[in-house]
Backbone:
DNA sequence: CGTAGTCTTGAACTCACTCAACGATAGTGG
DNA sequence: CCACTATCGTTGAGTGAGTTCAAGACTACG
């Protein structure tokens, strides 16, 4: 078979659940489009009706919510290889925004198309479900992080998670250099701190020798000390989650 | 057909997705047990392997996570009619605790049994998925609440949500009297405030005439003012989510 | 009726915020 | 190529929302 740009999408799902040839075939037959989006542009806005599902191929995206006073909370980040809105595949109305942080490229399929594949192929639906549940687990850890850790640990935790998730995607097991495409204000929106305080905590972590910083990247120098300062335990990422075998 | 204690479970799922007679029959054939649990007892603990799924019939339960220093963050509450761990149906390892707050009764089915029904009945899986996604939406709102609202609004938001969810379950559209089975310390763990501050904010809301308090219950006297103080917009609860029709 | 848990209140403290100014950097247009 | 502008990062000083500590009051329950 020729190369099909939907392959990464299929592989993403196949990493969660073993897919049958029929499953794979149905997925690869979906109409799709490859799209590029500029930083800041919205994939979907709160209260809108979701119309598309997609897989992030390159770049970084974020989910966010706003208070009525305009304060923003980033509720999730997405790296290449992450699905962008399987969360909302069956919801009538989006409950949060999804927005490009950097320039991103994504493969997009129509919501209805993916729904009908999922209807006929339970393995696909199961893969989507598992993906959703793991994202929910990450959101819960963020809630714990924001609610119950002090600024320094909170920021450190954010950096540890980003480093680990990045390492997985790039198949480099011990990557500690993070290309961080977030401004300090955006980091603050993720960990619920002001940009000023983010700046101070970053400098503190640097002064303690846990990280070093250059223009747009951070290197975690002392991983153990950093993970300890962050109270970081990656089990919530469910990295060891076993692939579901086909039952029938 | 005789009355089957699994009925509420089926109805719960059927409220999300239209089920076929075959779906219903398969669900009703599952082995189940009815269980009662005392306040504080664990339904599941973090890092454990989930073995059962259940529906909460009576009482209130909570999900929580702990930092290594022992600080607790409650990441979700469950009222009668809520499912207790469909979240973890496909996860190898629990990422949070689920614990009874009051004495609770629940209908429990074996994880494997529900999985095999879901495998063969896509509508069931879809219903579970929708349930999971709505819970995730609530968790995101909590993250916004804890991260970006001040104590008074944060607490008010918590109370508004509890009142609305309670009202739905009891089919009383405008219920504002809340039987709150949480200590102020537990409320604090939900909204990430100290019990002392929870106490002060409750008294402040009372002094402003937004709520009145008696022993174990709170009445929201001025709903509009309260919702406004809370920055509460219930759209994240997805109450108007339409039931999914069978596609055939 | 005593004990344990919860609620309440006060006082001191502190982590993080606000406000404000300045510096660095990158992109833009003339 | 340089000046202009906007955005981002950095730093200081003052402030405040929420915490900590501590003690007393209330309530439920054996």
Residues:
């Amino acid at each position: 078979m020729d190369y099909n740009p939907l392959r990464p999408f299929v592989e993403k799902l196949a990493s969660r659940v073993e897919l049958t040839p029929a499953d794979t075939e149905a997925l690869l037959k979906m109409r799709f489009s490859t799209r590029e989006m500029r930083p800041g542009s919205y994939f979907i806005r709160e209260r809108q009706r979701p119309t598309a599902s997609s897989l992030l191929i390159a770049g970084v995206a974020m989910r966010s919510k706003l208070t009525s006073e305009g304060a923003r909370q980033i509720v999730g980040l997405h790296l290449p290889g992450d699905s962008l809105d399987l969360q909302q595949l069956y919801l009538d109305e989006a409950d949060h925004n999804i927005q490009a942080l950097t320039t991103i490229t994504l493969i997009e399929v129509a919501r209805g198309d993916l729904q009908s594949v999922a209807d006929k192929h339970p393995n696909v639906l199961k893969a989507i479900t598992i993906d959703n549940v793991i994202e929910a687990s990450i959101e819960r850890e963020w809630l714990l992080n924001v609610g119950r850790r002090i600024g320094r640990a909170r920021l450190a935790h954010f950096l540890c998670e980003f480093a680990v998730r990045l390492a997985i995607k790039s198949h480099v097991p011990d990557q500690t250099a993070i290309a961080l495409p977030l401004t300090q204000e955006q980091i603050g929106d993720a960990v619920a701190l002001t940009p000023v305080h983010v700046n101070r905590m970053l400098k503190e972590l640097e002064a303690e020798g846990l990280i070093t910083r250059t223009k747009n990247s951070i290197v975690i120098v002392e991983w153990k000390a950093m993970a300890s300062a962050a109270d970081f335990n990656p089990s919530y990422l469910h990295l060891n989650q076993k692939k579901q075998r086909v039952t029938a």
